[in-house]
Amino acid sequence: MARIVMKFGGTSVADIERIKNVANRVKREVDSGNEVAVVVSAMSGATNQLVAWCSQIAPLHDAREYDAVVATGEQVTTGLLAIALQEIGQSARSWCGWQLPIHTDGVHGKARIMSIETDEMIARMGKGEVAVVAGFQGLGPDKRISTLGRGGSDTSAVALAAALKADRCDIYTDVDGVYTTDPRIVTKARKLDKITYEEMLELASVGAKVLQTRSVEMAMKHRVRVQVLSSFEDKPGTLVCDEDEIVEKELVSGIAYSRDEAKVTLVRVADRPGVAAAIFGPLAEAAVNVDMIVQNVSEDGKSTDLTFTVGNADLERAKKVLEEHKGALGYEKLISDPNVVKVSVIGVGMRSHAGIAQKMFQTLASEGINIQVISTSEIKISVLIEEKYTELALRALHTAYGLDAA
Ligand code: ASP
Ligand code: MG
């Protein structure tokens, strides 16, 4: 007997037919002798609607009330799924975050899970009852409902799997696994059988939106085996697991891209100690997330250009902050460009093999694509290029690294 957490995303519970379908799948797991806890998202589109209603009343609203509103989407689907299970003869009950409870910190709208009380749930699961738990929500230290940030149900599921010491956390979604790159762009993209936590983390953070980044961090920390699979088709998905579980490691496992990037260049910034701190300090205070950074060496020893990237949504705020501090920073002018894309090549094999970066640069060069910024980590190489080359770059790199499906 195994203990399994099954998570169903918004498209999997989008209407009554689909909820009935989910109930059948859940029952099948129970019938094969497993203890099952299910985590559900709100019906697809529901959370967007709830968020929009809050903003329509007040663009800047009380985050605690926002949480009270947006958490309702999941309350609906837990109750409906419990009814659907009971209807096919499977005992089940729904749990809101505050009922277990799932304790979170007090950052409303973006809370982190601190701990989950599972005693009663485990006792009931032991008697064959399916626990249907609302994703995305918890209980803050102020005794008010909290939510975990968009896409947070993935994190709820992994956290629950860790708390229950579950054998597996199966994430059912509208894609059937993790691909070597975006299959909508590269038709030869392949589904991966397995991928390491670290690679998945890099893929998630650079824009492969299969799993919420935080859920992967949590899975890695607690060594929860996560399987991503389709809720519409019966076929194996992708297992996100420890490196030891992967026998044949690829040099490069995946190529990700993020269009949500904007480039900022400060022309002729003074080249002296403290300047970087003076620039990035105020940006951090304004909650602008800075990603890639390059600073040129100055020719005259006095001034140099500094380029960095921010998320598209943060560009205007970043510009405003930098313009406010122009006097203190003493740069000549500010240039920005939202039409850039970050393309990243990811693989744990990079740690022990040379030449992987070179292949990337060579491939882009032979397509005539100019690289604007480069950054690397132990298992990732990222380049910033003009957005219009996204498709071309992805296809060329996918072929160059031998990832194309036969
Ligand atoms: N319903 C929430 C959202 O749309 C959480 C989730 O689905 O993961 O972001
Ligand atoms: Mg999702």
From TrEMBL:
CDD domains from the UniProt entry: AAK_AKii-LysC-BS (cd04261), ACT_AKii-LysC-BS-like_1 (cd04913), ACT_AKii-LysC-BS-like_2 (cd04936)
GO molecular function: aspartate kinase activity; ATP binding
Pathway: Amino-acid biosynthesis; L-methionine biosynthesis via de novo pathway; L-homoserine from L-aspartate: step 1/3; Amino-acid biosynthesis; L-lysine biosynthesis via DAP pathway; (S)-tetrahydrodipicolinate from L-aspartate: step 1/4; Amino-acid biosynthesis; L-threonine biosynthesis; L-threonine from L-aspartate: step 1/5
EC number: 2.7.2.4
Matching PROSITE patterns: ACT (PS51671), ASPARTOKINASE (PS00324)
Keyword field contains ATP-binding: yes
Residue ranges annotated for the ACT domain, each copy included: 264-336, 345-406
Catalytic activity from the UniProt record: L-aspartate + ATP = 4-phospho-L-aspartate + ADP
CC per GO annotation: cytosol
Entry keyword ATP-binding: yes
UniProt-annotated binding residues for ATP: K7, F8, G9, G10, T173, D174, Y179, R184, K209, V210
Family matches, as Gene3D superfamilies: Acetylglutamate kinase-like, VC0802-like
Family of the protein in this entry: Belongs to the aspartokinase family.
Protein name: Aspartokinase
Species assigned in the record: Paramagnetospirillum kuznetsovii
Taxonomic placement: Bacteria, Pseudomonadati, Pseudomonadota, Alphaproteobacteria, Rhodospirillales
